[in-house]
């Protein structure tokens, strides 16, 4: 039976595809204060700005391509039972061809009703405007988990993490909870790899193998190390 390789990804894996990370730019995200565009308060204050912002992010995400780090995770399915837990709202893991992708913080290509949070539909790349509503009449919002909001997919992510034989972290600053807490929920003693351009200055679990470098540059080294454990 293949070993279960659980991969936890953040904005750093998509950086070399051309998407900006969050914390590499002084709290500004594409020129916007994160609090204005990624909080319920920001949405209440100026929904039009928030819709425009995510419409731009959606379009930008469509214009870029998966990179060799996304592709590596697809190749690893030949030797491992690969499960990806991503904080990213882009769909680069899916477009690369990964089979099991859990989005912790939502998906840019979907919208959610403000009236009924269970109403989540794909936008197929279309922009959303003020006045676009679900059938019951609630304004549609981006299907993105904002700061201060619950993370409904966390329970599933935790269950997957607790079954890992190998845990691999790629391109996350490990600053945002509860997501970052997954790192401390792995079965004790399993190998934990961390790939990052700059390994985050956080408490790392025992058996942690830091690989400092860009996700694409580290992909071949990572592959060699992982295949030894298969
Ligand atoms: N290769 C590898 N790592 C990289 C690269 C790269 N080319 N470029 C940047 N990084 C690393 C940075 O060093 C940093 O550790 O990626 C990480 C990006 O961190 P953040 O910008 O904080 O992104 P992330 O951890 O995914 O953010 C978590 O915060 O804003 C919220 O909900 C949003 O999901 C997001 C969450």
Automatic annotation (TrEMBL):
It is found in: Cytoplasm. It holds the Pfam family SIR2. Its main location: cytoplasm. Its EC number is 2.3.1.286. The active site is at 105 (proton acceptor). GO terms for molecular function: histone deacetylase activity, NAD-dependent; NAD+ binding; protein-malonyllysine demalonylase activity; protein-succinyllysine desuccinylase activity. Keywords: Cytoplasm, NAD, Transferase. NAD(+) binds at residues 10-29, 87-90, 171-173, 211. Substrate binds at residues 54, 57. Residues 1-230 form the Deacetylase sirtuin-type domain. GO terms for cellular component: cytoplasm. It catalyses: N(6)-succinyl-L-lysyl-[protein] + NAD(+) + H2O = 2''-O-succinyl-ADP-D-ribose + nicotinamide + L-lysyl-[protein]; N(6)-acetyl-L-lysyl-[protein] + NAD(+) + H2O = 2''-O-acetyl-ADP-D-ribose + nicotinamide + L-lysyl-[protein]. It comes from the Bacteria. InterPro entries: DHS-like_NAD/FAD-binding_dom (IPR029035), NAD-dep_sirtuin_deacylases (IPR050134), Sirtuin (IPR003000), Sirtuin_cat_small_dom_sf (IPR026591), Sirtuin_class_III (IPR027546), Ssirtuin_cat_dom (IPR026590). Belongs to the sirtuin family. Class III subfamily. NAD-dependent lysine deacetylase and desuccinylase that specifically removes acetyl and succinyl groups on target proteins. Modulates the activities of several proteins which are inactive in their acylated form. 2 residues (Tyr-54 and Arg-57) present in a large hydrophobic pocket are probably involved in substrate specificity. They are important for desuccinylation activity, but dispensable for deacetylation activity. This is NAD-dependent protein deacylase. It comes from Nitritalea halalkaliphila LW7. The gene is cobB.
């Amino acid at each position: 039976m293949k070993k279960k390789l659980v991969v936890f990804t953040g904005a750093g894996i998509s950086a070399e595809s051309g998407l900006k990370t969050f914390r590499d730019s002084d709290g500004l995200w594409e020129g916007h204060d994160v609090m204005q565009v990624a909080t319920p308060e920001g949405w209440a204050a100026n929904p039009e700005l928030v819709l425009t912002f995510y419409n731009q992010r959606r379009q930008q995400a469509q214009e870029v391509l998966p990179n060799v780090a996304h592709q590596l995770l697809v190749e690893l399915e030949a030797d491992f039972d690969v499960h990806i837990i991503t904080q990213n709202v882009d769909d680069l893991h899916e477009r690369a061809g990964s089979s099991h992708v859990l989005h912790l913080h939502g998906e840019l290509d979907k919208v959610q009703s403000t009236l009924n949070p269970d109403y989540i539909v794909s936008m197929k790349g279309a922009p959303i405007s003020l006045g676009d509503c679900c059938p019951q009449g609630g304004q549609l919002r981006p299907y993105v988990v904002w700061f201060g909001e619950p993370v409904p997919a966390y329970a599933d992510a935790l269950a997957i993490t607790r079954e890992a034989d190998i845990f691999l972290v790629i391109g996350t600053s490990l600053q945002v909870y509860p997501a970052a807490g997954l790192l401390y929920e792995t079965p004790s003693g399993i190998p934990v790899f961390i790939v990052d351009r700059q390994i985050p200055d956080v408490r790392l679990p025992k058996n942690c193998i830091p690989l400092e470098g860009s996700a694409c540059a580290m992909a071949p080294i990572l592959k060699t190390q992982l295949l030894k454990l298969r």
